């Protein structure tokens, strides 16, 4: 058994302003409001391979399984390119292994202790929708080499805290990768994602965690097909918020969204809210008091350039032309600039978005931001095309006075 490893880092402090305003406006505000101070730090990292003669660092994971149960952080599953990046001929590999960290709160200097608890999902999964609940971490959908998944699992800690318990929940009615999930009043809500045909779904479903025998129940469709967005829960108003995301289009550029929609679980209806200041997908986010925070994300510039080249490659009749286009695509991805570091804050009461500072670390996309008290933990993700991230980042949220 590997000895538990204690990971400890000094915080890097960054203050951001989450301004409030008196009117709805899709443009970013610049003045007024109540500040939210955020202290950012590296909390830990995925373990490397210690069994090699020359130990290897962990390349990180995109689309990981991620959540907290009983003050234990679970990270695993996901995908990476262990034998070379895509433009080098590398093959995407999916995983089932799960890593477990014991979280200890000690003010701004938290610790994440890698434990000896070793476990894995009963299947490989990348890009699932993950949410932490009172019963455990729900992992819904995702994909592997066989395509999108309809499987749903619940991960919890054993009573002795020496193993993980993984049990199945009712399957999704349709396989989905890049979907979004939240929990509200003991019910799971699952939205959108991409299905086996590559289409983006408008499906919106609920599952009662107190009685799962009825399975997933259909709700009013999403206002538009959305995958890789952020779904927030606001229990005090019985409302769900769905921000940003994207939609796949056949033989055309993917649509990136700046939209924000609210769903009332009481009236069972969707309502349009103020747009984000820009379109973005694959971001992460959490609700904090009366604000929705959104971290980073892909604004689509390089994504769209790559798509344009892929369409030209598919249409190319001449092999020489096709190889030239492939080289252009590879160069574009190889020099990917990374993703936006911008943090956005949405004031629920004022229906207004604000620019709210920048991430001090590499911007992580295709992962999950997890609330932990007044803190947020963001594990792994993708930081450039094909490049994964092994680090676990923590933000301490301090409300303004």
From TrEMBL:
It comes from the Bacteria. SUPFAM superfamilies: Kelch motif (SSF117281). Residues 1-20 form the signal peptide. Keywords: Signal. The keyword Signal applies. InterPro entries: Kelch-typ_b-propeller, NANM. This is Cyclically-permuted mutarotase family protein.
